[in-house]
Amino acid sequence: xxxxxxxxxxxxxxxxxxxxxxxxxxxxxxxxxxxxxxxxxxxxxxxxxxxxxxxxxxxxxxxxxxxxxxxxxxxxxxxxxxxxxxxxxxxxxxxxxxxxxxxxxxxxxxxxxxxxxxxxxxxxxxxxxxxxxxxxxxxxxxxxxxxxxxxxxxxxxxxxxxxxxxxxxxxxxxxxxxxxxxxxxxxxxxxxxxxxxxxxxxxxxxxxxxxxxxxxxxxxxxxxxxxxxxxxxxxxxxxxxxxxxxxxxxxxxxxxxxxxxxxx
Length: 264
Description:
Layout: E1 2-4, H1 10-20, H2 22-28, E2 30-34, H3 36-44, E3 49-54, H4 65-70, E4 73-77, H5 79-85, E5 94-99, E6 115-120, H6 125-138, E7 142-146, H7 155-161, H8 164-167, E8 170-173, H9 175-184, E9 188-192, E10 198-199, E11 209-213, H10 222-227, E12 230-233, H11 245-262
Parallel strand pairs: 1-4, 3-4, 6-7, 6-11, 7-8, 9-11, 9-12, 10-12
Antiparallel strand pairs: 2-5, 3-5
Helix pairs in contact: 1-5, 6-7, 6-11
């Protein structure tokens, strides 16, 4: 186990670069996970850990033996060295580098009552992370990110998802490819929009369903509006006319779960 104390250590610089540069994450096929819980969830989901960095002043070795056993390389850092790569406040003393994993639509399992969440051109990592938490919690089968403006291995996505980015299958692809796959597998395409819509609880979610959400700034594109089999809305009783997209996903994915459980 190598000890790192110098703030100029090249390995620390490499970690910082991976955190900040999406192009480097794509080119290297590597990404950074901060936090014991998130790292353990990544390992449990089958992601390959490459390097483990920890600060014994923050977390004892006895609490991360499983992570140490899974990592080909482990580095013990001084508190000052660790602070250089710590991305968030209240950190748990663990930072790890993992290999990325790319899924395709053909990797996704399909059932009669599958629920897939589709996001069009999501750009805020915090929203994507929160949506992943809702997808995991409500039992969604997959998240399809169409024409993404942020990568799923952005540190803020990993952080906001609290590791749900590892527990929920995620596929990034063009909208046209996603629509073709959904049609092939006979999904009902349900779009969340204000225009020409019925309230969400009047729509049957017990069949294979794709819930499609647009961006907060411009909403859904005409492409998905035209592909829609059902247009739904969430009633707004106050002065606002819409909810944050992550909140909308939570409400609608749990309605799908409620309907499925009520029919058992």
